[in-house]
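Records of this kind hold a single protein each, on a pair of labelled lines. Below, a sample record shows both lines together.
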Amino acid sequence: MTGEPILDRDARARIVEAVRRAEAATSGEIVVLVAARAGTYRSAPLLFALACGLLAPWPLILLTPWSAVSIALAQACIVLAALAAGLHPRARMGLVPRAIRRARAHEAARREFCSRGLSRTPDRTGVLIYLARAEGHAEIVADAGVAARVPAAAWEAAIAALLAALRRGEMEAGLVAAVERVGAILAAELPDRDGGLDLLPNRVIVVD
């Protein structure tokens, strides 16, 4: 991904500081991960172009006196134009049904939770705050030690506020607020008993 970074160095530092403050009152471990997108959806432009190619000839056959050769050329041009439009990331995302985008982001959140080592803390107290920017999807994944004390519904307000901030273009503020909300819930259910032992690095993971 080119252009401006998802989060600049100062923004990451402020989020890290929010994580440090939140973890000071809980035995839970918070990790923030922001992905540019959860999937590439390479098949979406191909399917769109195929649909355009199949549908395009019919109105030309019915409404124009064009020859078969002219219609075939027009069909080829429409397919190429559809493929070209699908190359733009935002246009490609628009071709993917929302349910598929959400499912892909959900799978990515679970995969990142495991691959980043959040399931390896001794008391299973890792919590991942996951945000897929392109899909507009946020999720909080908690390990078994947290899930046993905190119902999944408890995270809904934090997720809703984070997504609202993302829509306003205030991703950093939304992530800081999400960390604070998650930290407050963890402090109430899993207060710190080990003197502030930090088992996972306090850094913002950004996946371009």
Q: What stands out?
A: DSSP finds nine helices and four strands in the chain. The CA atoms of residues 14 and 88 lie 32 Å apart. The chain has two domains: 9-39+97-207, 43-95. Residues 9-39+97-207 form a domain with the Diaminopimelate Epimerase; Chain A, domain 1 fold (CATH 3.10.310.50).
